[in-house]
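Sample log: Na(+)/H(+) antiporter NhaA.
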Amino acid sequence: MITRVRNELTRYLRIETVGGALLLVAAAIALIWVNSPWGASYQTMVDTHLSISALHLDLTLADWTKDGLLAIFFFVAGLELKREFVVGELADPKRAALPIIAAVGGVVTPAVIAIVVGHGVPGMDKGWAIPVATDIAFALAVLAMTGSRIPASARVFLLSLAVVDDLLAIVLIAVLFTASLSMLWLGVAIACCAAWALAQRQRLHTPLFYIPVALVCWYALHEAGIHPTLAGVALGLSTRVRKDPGEKIAPATHLEHVVQPISAGVCVPLFALFASGVPLDGAVFGSLFTDRLSLAIILGLLLGKTIGIFGISWLAIRFGVAKRPAGLEYRDMFALSVLGAIGFTVSLLVAELALADVGDDAIDLAKAAVLVTSMAASLLGSALLLRRGRVHQARRDADELQPDSEA
């Protein structure tokens, strides 16, 4: 009975809408909690320290979710990246061209807008990176809920775009937030990745090897001064994605099948719970649409993502550099570009990293800007997708009736 319940639960957590819903519920709980009469208890929970003295680790619970649990989320992202580039849509250069170009436009344009709007604002030397990332789980959940009637190529385009987008965001995190580097610990982390890749090459399957290697890799990157979530990406990219003859499933597919429910059901919601607790007092609301920091994030996400993704995609198709996905029209692509402005998980992470030296007020303001913009993008994108879905459904209905009318 327990096994059946567990299997049903993990199957349920693999559904994109469920992961997105849990993320939203966790964020809503955090917002309600911190703005309730019991808000002090939320802050106490966030600031509670959990230490591992033997490893000289002393992190708050919020830091553990940001540095530890998100490593699992990034591991799943790394597996998706590897699969897409080796055997997925991005393996074909012609198919990969459009989402890759769109992802670059969706990173560069928000960054430029944020730099221009927020020029001279404290923290914007790195804060321009806050609006560059699209939240895969949230965006795909919205698409699954409201875009079921548009062609299936929409999901392929959005997933491929978000995967490349995440890769670029990961590179930015590695470059921007590595203050000091310990070459010794970096060497240990590289050795762990090499050991993981070698074990994959030798067809080793036991978790008794992989789990300790993953933990050591995470700790080594932490000690090296590099954000430890990158351990998840590195190990995901080191995992084999092609199955051997006679092998039922490739290791990357198996690991994604096992780990993704943990990421979607535990890691991302807990991160959202600890990261989304923004006091929505008069000061935050009063500054949200006047402060240049929040305006840089809002305009960078909502305008930058939409214009960057759709604009460069239109140009690439117009000049023959890439082909439009089968069945999708430009209006469909515009709706998907709006979903690209949902910058939840990674944007919240970058906000904490980029503004750590500026102060809690700046972090809260940046988080509020991310939350408000992500909700606006999800609502606007949903409305556009529902409208486009009705158009596609009407065409399908007309096509089905056509033979009868001819008869």
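Observation: The chain has 17 helices and two strands.
Observation: The mean pLDDT is 86.
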